[in-house]
Amino acid sequence: MGLGVSFGRARRYTQFVSPAVIAFAFDPVLRLGDLEFRVQTVVLAGIILAALLLTARIGRLTPQDSPYVPPPTLRPDDIPFLVLGIVPGAVIGGRLEYVLLHADYYAANPTAIVDPAQGSLALGLAVLGGMLGGIAIARLVGAPADRWMHAATLPVLFVLAAGKLVSVLTAEGQGLPSDLPWATAYTGPGPWGSLAPDVPSHPSQVYEAIATTIVLTFLGLALRLGAFARRDGSALLVAVVLWAIGRGIVAVTWRDAAVLGPLNAEQLILIAVVVACGVALVVLARRRVAEPAGSSGPRTELSWPSPESRPRF
How many CB atoms lie within 10 A of CB 252? Predict the structure, then answer.
């Protein structure tokens, strides 16, 4: 028998579901009087808030590259400025990828590219765009971009894993039809985020959440053991590379058509993301080689901070 899961004010339906299939039957909309909210939106807001708080906490434990003894840690008041770069960068990158994925439609309807009511965003270039936007703003306001990239490594993976898992609440990211015991189906009118949600399919969004959690665990242990001690941003670049590889593997179960051999369009974009991050890692590696032995970065002679030069709280 299928597994019925109820949430909030569930609507009741009688519908055939194949045996050994996980069937979700709940209302994905949260109602408070006359107001309606998608449950996914509310949960995502909580996830993002938790990630920002985690980033601030890690930042308070991350020392800056400073001549002071002890060196000051990253300032939490940098975060609002960084967000002002990350959000538009992610939106632009995500929209660009969505347009590339649906190039035929947007070639015929170019004005729809900038129409926020039409289409959506895609995740691959959104991650890369958000990272570039954050770096740009960090340099503009004088924040240490490399140290903040290091501090954001685990929070970014947390958002990617938890955010993908939350997609279960709206049936977004359902994969190819499947008769596996853990295939999922959604009953009722929704609104759902995938076509034919009542067809038992691979829970690709869960696969990706699991893959990202594995990357999160691996890098968390690596950081705990002292890896990426230079805090030069390479940890985040490695995180994005591993995440993109995991997402690319999971994309085999997607419903997207192949466009180049066995690869679908998203997989090609993820290859580009991996290459871009790989190039950045090579640049950082060459920079380390070019530095004098025993140097951890550009530093001046150590000095004690005076009240006039003390960093702001």
Answer: 16
Tokens (6 digits) for 88: 């538009």
- Residue ranges of the chain with per-residue pLDDT less than 50: 1-17, 294, 298-304, 306, 308-310, 313
Total-model pTM: 0.86
Backbone angles phi, psi at 309, to 5 degrees: -100, 5
pLDDT in tens, 257-266: 999 999 999 9
| Residue with the two structure tokens 């990211």 | 173
Return the SS3 of 30. strand
* Helix/strand/coil (H/E/C) assignment for every residue in 100-133: HHCHHHHHHCHHHHHCCCCCCCCHHHHHHHHHHH
Residues 219-242 pLDDT 10s: 999 999 999 999 999 999 999 999
Torsion angle in degrees (nearest 10) through CA of 156, 159, 160, 161: 120
What is the token pair recorded at 79? 């975060």
37: three-class secondary structure by DSSP: strand
